[in-house]
Design brief:
Layout: H1 12-40, H2 43-65, H3 71-90
Helix pairs in contact: 1-2, 1-3
Protein name: DUF3649 domain-containing protein
Organism: Leeuwenhoekiella marinoflava DSM 3653
Transmembrane segments: 21-40, 46-67, 74-92
């Protein structure tokens, strides 16, 4: 059974952009999400749990990347989420205050 031609009309750059957004961008979003949660909660538990939940979130984001019409839109969404989470990580209060 041949493939439907409407799914084969994307350029090679669109396919490359979606694949890289799914693999790299999805991983960056999943990792920064876990680091942001760890910055505000018990970081040991979050980082241990991330070994399983990071893969699940990454797989969902990988799938989501192929639902977008344009690769640059999904890259923009993923990088925007990473930027917001990075700012939250940067401004997180210290978990163990330094002694006076």
């Amino acid at each position: 059974m041949p493939a439907n031609s409407k799914y084969l009309t994307q350029s090679k750059w669109q396919r490359f952009g979606k694949i890289t957004a799914g693999i790299l961008g999805g991983y960056l979003v999943a990792q920064t999400l876990h680091l942001a949660v760890a910055a505000y909660t018990n970081h040991v538990v979050v980082l241990i749990t991330s070994t399983f939940s990071l893969f699940i979130i990454w797989a969902a984001l990988l799938t989501f990347a192929f639902l977008a019409k344009k690769a640059w839109k999904i890259w923009g969404i993923y990088l925007g989420i990473c930027l917001i989470l990075s700012v939250l990580i940067y401004f997180a209060p210290p978990l163990h205050p330094l002694p006076a």
